[in-house]
From TrEMBL:
PROSITE patterns for this protein: IQ (PS50096)
GO function terms (MF aspect): ATP binding; ATP hydrolysis activity
SUPFAM superfamilies: P-loop containing nucleoside triphosphate hydrolases (SSF52540)
Stretches assigned to the ATPase AAA-type core domain: 583-714
Biased composition (Basic and acidic residues): 331-351, 414-430
PANTHER family the UniProt entry points to: IQ MOTIF CONTAINING WITH AAA DOMAIN 1 (PTHR14690:SF0)
Listed name of the protein: Dynein regulatory complex protein 11-like isoform X3
Region feature Disordered, mapped onto this chain: 316-430, 461-500
Keywords, in A-Z order: ATP-binding, Nucleotide-binding
């Protein structure tokens, strides 16, 4: 698409933002909403509209090549993500559930479920691509040094026993004899067929015309059926109901669109490089051309101020300190008399000692006054509490000001800007000059301040020589004392920091050690779009009927994106959004819990630390060893953030009773893990993710106390299974035809998880079966046999998850 397309998307997003800001920042505070359902509808409508804004801004930011527009877009994009996460928290508080359904809202806004699909910003990984490549290269080098794992070596070196060798020989010999027997029986059948045909040769024959008519009838019927079948398949392909077989990947519209997007990203890098160079060159040019003129103008203004203050007060003023803004402070005030009065008041507060007694009296008076005020405030507060209406009210937002600021900048700079002469969408030099002129002015002002301070000092010295007055010394000593106080305060803060157990080691050495110990592992490349699931269309209907619906896999994907990916991918969002430190994914076996963990790491470019009890068994023994391991993991995770700390079989950490046969010591992290999670701060882009298939076997209070958010992953529903069968069969190199009844297959496999369905597909679609697909199409019956050998997830097991 063109530049104009993405600019239009950007404008549409800001039009919606303008409408929402009128709701978010009303002139009068809104009254609390007493009806919970009405409050949910209002918040959910805002939530859906912010998702639409997010989708448009994300597409625009990914493809707009103008470097200055991208900076404004990024600021607004982070604000939209943060506001979505804030509204998510409000919805959870209203419905007491992590899963929400918007069927009626989508109907009112005339949207489809695809219109509110939560996108994952591509800049999470694209802007860190170089760092991720270097880290992957380092990880590969460390793993190459380690060589193959010991387990694999032991399996290879294990000798074969005599019984196993005899059994293998017997199997092969029996197979050989079976093949010979089958060949012999085939020859016998062929001989009998030849004898039968020879016996029938003497039978009466039909007339040639009748035989020709019969042959024509059979052939024409066959040819017409084949032609009809081909035309039907072509029609289905034309309307998009079946995929196009054998089409080259390079000719598809999807491939061409992806190629165009990649080319625009390359252009982004080129324009960004030119923009960074322009920042330096334009600033230097401004410093050379306008710098001397600025300097002279400032000096003249400051000298004029000296004269005005002296004429008004009879003496020269004190020059403002750098901390107070220097000469910039002078021109904020309207008249020199006001400036001098302010400076004199400061001098009196610092230098005079006469007012000590008076101050004490004032303090006591103030205390009395404060008590009186407190009494009044208490009364007022009591009245407010009585008058305050009960109901729901949105909490103050941390991101609405950022959205308002970005919207103002867009309206003032970019909305009506004429870019007819900037077809290639390179940087705007005039905007750079406006920004850099302020920077140059600040630098010149510092130089002028030094010169004018010296000049003022000389003027005062000349006046003092005439009048015999001494210079002021009290201010300097007072300033020194203040600085000492600041230093002592800093020292007190430093003493509160925790002890660094690895202060003498570099992050690289700690990283290498964790990789060698198998705690920092390589994450498989899995995208969130690979986790398949269809939208639940009955959610609102069931909830209206007071029936709590089971979430669909589409809902699970949305919640994991909101809690695991969006905050972790952006530092600005993570610092101000509602903080999610830990997340527990629970559900039956094969529902894709670990796949979601890998998707979070892939989409955010996060490091993966594996603290599963089976993985850390025998490593860093003892209390000191455990403390060292936790310190190293969290230190490296903070330095190389974002990071994901994975705890598989999380319920084992809080088991009521550990089996005696378990050598992994699963309760090893029971105290240290919650303590480490508690110490995580908003600036730490770290999330602890646990997975559990049997949460009902442990102490639920301890488990829920450790993990802040718990997400249940159910069995896939019919719509999700239908989507999975289609996608997985094509992934396994199968071909979807009319002979394959996917609908019936989806109905039969109720209770089976995605992992079990993929196992059945792998067993059916062998290399030999794939070669036969052109002659023998795939049918639904072929999957029944492998599925029958797998135990599904029964409803009772799923109900146990809902109860706990």
């Amino acid at each position: 698409m063109s530049h104009d397309t993405y600019n239009t998307l950007w404008k549409q997003a800001h039009t919606t933002i303008t409408d929402l800001l009128e709701i978010e920042q009303p002139e009068e505070p809104p009254k609390p909403e007493r009806d919970r359902l009405t409050a949910f509808q209002n918040v959910a409508t805002m939530y859906v509209r912010y998702i639409q804004i997010f989708r448009k801004l994300e597409s625009s930011y990914d493809q707009i090549v103008h470097p200055q527009k991208r900076r404004v877009l990024r600021h607004v994009l982070d604000g939209a993500i943060g506001r979505i996460l804030e509204l998510k928290g409000e919805l959870t508080g209203l419905e007491f559930s992590e899963f929400h359904y918007f069927d009626d809202i989508l109907s009112d806004l005339k949207l489809t479920p695809n219109d509110i699909e939560m996108p994952i910003p591509k800049y999470f990984t694209l802007e860190r691509s170089k760092i991720l490549k270097d880290r992957e290269k380092l990880l590969g080098q460390i793993l190459a040094k380690l060589g193959p794992q010991d387990k694999d070596l032991k399996e290879e070196e294990k000798p074969m026993s005599l019984e196993e060798s005899i059994r293998i020989i017997q199997v092969h010999e029996r197979a050989r004899q079976g093949r010979l027997r089958a060949k012999f029986m085939r020859e016998i059948r062929m001989q009998e067929e030849r004898e039968r045909q020879a016996a029938n040769r003497g039978a009466p024959t039909i007339e040639p015309d009748t035989a020709a008519i019969r042959i024509q009838k059979v052939w024409k019927g066959f040819a017409q059926r084949k032609r009809t079948k081909r035309e039907r398949e072509e029609e289905m392909m034309f309307i998009g109901m079946t995929p196009l077989p054998g089409q080259p990947a390079k000719n598809t519209p999807q491939f061409l669109a992806t190629k165009t997007e990649s080319a625009r990203r390359v252009t982004q890098e080129e324009h960004e490089r030119e923009y960074q160079q322009a920042l330096v060159t334009i600033k230097e040019k401004l410093r050379e051309v306008e710098g001397p003129e600025m300097k002279e103008s400032m000096q003249d203004q400051i000298r004029q101020w000296f004269i005005e203050v002296r004429d008004a007060t009879g003496k020269f003023p004190d020059y403002p300190d750098e901390d107070e803004g220097g000469s910039a402070m002078i021109f904020k005030e309207k008249t020199p008399e006001e400036v001098e009065a302010e400076m004199a008041a400061k001098a009196e507060e610092k230098g005079k000692k006469k007012g000590k007694k008076g101050k004490k009296g004032k303090k006591s008076g103030k205390k009395k006054g404060k008590k009186g005020k407190k009494g009044k405030k208490g009364k007022k507060g009591g009245d407010d509490e009585e008058e305050e209406e009960p109901g729901f009210k949105l909490a103050p937002s941390q991101f609405v000001p950022a959205l308002a600021e970005g919207n103002t900048q867009f309206q003032g700079v970019w909305k009506e800007r004429d870019e007819s002469d900037n077809f290639s969408q390179k940087h705007d030099a005039e905007l750079i000059k406006e920004d850099k002129r302020k920077e140059v002015e600040g630098e010149v002002r510092l130089q002028v301040d030094e010169l004018m301070r010296e000049e003022l000092k000389n003027l005062k010295a000349a006046v003092e020589r005439d009048k015999g007055k001494k210079g002021k010394k009290g201010k300097k000593s007072g300033k020194k004392k203040k600085k000492k106080g600041k230093k002592s305060g800093k020292k007190g803060k430093k003493g509160k920091k925790e002890k660094d157990l690895t202060a003498d080691r570099t992050i690289e050495s700690l990283y290498e050690e964790l990789v060698q110990e198998g705690i920092l592992v390589r994450c498989p490349k899995v995208h969130m779009s690979d986790y398949l699931g269809e939208y639940s269309y009955l959610g609102t209907t069931l909830r209206t009927a007071n029936i709590e619906p089971m979430p669909s896999l589409h809902d699970v994907r949305r919640v994991v994106t909101e809690y695991g990916i969006l905050p972790l991918g952006s530092q600005a969002v993570h610092e101000q959004a509602p903080l999610v430190k830990s997340l527990l994914l629970t559900g039956p076996r094969g529902t894709g819990k670990k796949m979601l963990v890998h998707a979070i790491c892939t989409e955010t470019g996060a490091n993966l630390f594996d603290l599963t009890c089976t993985n850390i068994a025998g490593k860093y023994p003892g209390k000191s060893g455990l403390a060292m391991m936790m310190h190293m993991v969290f230190k490296v995770a903070r330095q190389l953030q974002p990071s994901v700390i994975f705890v598989g079989d999380a319920e084992k950490t809080f088991l009521k009773k550990v089996p005696k046969t378990d050598p992994t010591d699963p309760k090893r992290l029971k105290k240290d893990l919650p303590k480490a999670i508690k110490g995580m701060k908003a600036e730490d882009r770290i999330v602890v993710i646990g997975t559990s298939r049997q949460p009902f076997d442990c102490e639920l209070k301890a488990l829920t106390g450790c993990y802040q958010k718990i997400v249940l992953i159910p069995r896939p529903d019919y719509a999700s299974r239908f989507l999975m069968w289609q996608s997985m069969i094509q992934k396994g190199q199968g071909i979807l035809t009319n002979h394959l009844d996917v609908s019936s297959l989806s109905k039969v496999t109720d209770g089976y998880t995605p992992a079990q369905m993929w196992t059945a597909i792998q067993q059916v679609l062998t290399d030999r079966r794939i070669q036969q697909l052109s002659k023998r199409p795939l049918t639904s019956v072929e999957f029944i046999s492998p599925l029958a050998r797998i135990d599904p997830i029964y409803k009772e097991e799923e109900e146990a998850f809902k109860l706990c």
